[in-house]
Structure formats: C-alpha cells, structure tokens
Amino acid sequence: MTILFVDEEYDRGPILHQAGGVPVYPNDTPEKIAARVIKVEHRAYSEAVQIWLNKQTK
Questions:
Q1: Bridge partners for 4 per DSSP
Q2: 11's torsion region: left (phi>0), alpha (psi -120 to 50) or beta?
Q3: What backbone phi and psi angles, to 5 degrees, belong to 2?
Q4: Model confidence over 1-58: pLDDT tens digits?
Q5: How far apart are CA 18 and CA 47, in angstroms?
Q6: β-pair type (15-18, 2-4)
C-alpha cells in the first residue's frame, strides 16, 4: 500500500510511506483478506505519521 500526500489529482501526490501487501489464499473470503489488509494499514499509517513528525522536527 502507498500513503500519499493529497494534491489536486487522484493518486498523484508525493509518497510519504509504502508498506508491503498481504497474502491471498485460494479459499479466502473478502472478509478474511480485509482483516489482513486492515492490520497492514493500521501499522503503515502509524509509521507514516511518525515519519512525517520526524521530518517536521528537523
């Protein structure tokens, strides 16, 4: 997943942080995949905020 700063165009802002994907298995349901994705998103957004804060203090 990629976390971007928002600008005037969709998915065109500068990249702040990128995180890896999740595995998808043959018997997965959308709910199982979503549960894996949300864990990655929560971690990645926390990391992105920390990266942004660190840049602000330098």
A1: 15
A2: left
A3: -125, 130
A4: 889 888 888 878 888 899 888 999 999 999 999 999 999 999 999 999 998 899 888 7
A5: 9
A6: antiparallel
Inter-CA distances, 52 with 5, 11, 12, 23, 48, Å: 10, 18, 18, 28, 6
- Tokens at 27, concatenated: 């018997």
So where are the chain's domains? 2-56
Could you tell me how far CA 58 lies from the centroid of its own chain? 24
Q: What is the pTM of this model?
A: 0.72
Residue 14 backbone zone (phi > 0: left; psi -120 to 50: alpha; other: beta): beta
Question: What is the C-alpha separation between 17 and 32, in angstroms, rounded?
Answer: 24
Structure tokens that stand for 4 in this block: 């971007």
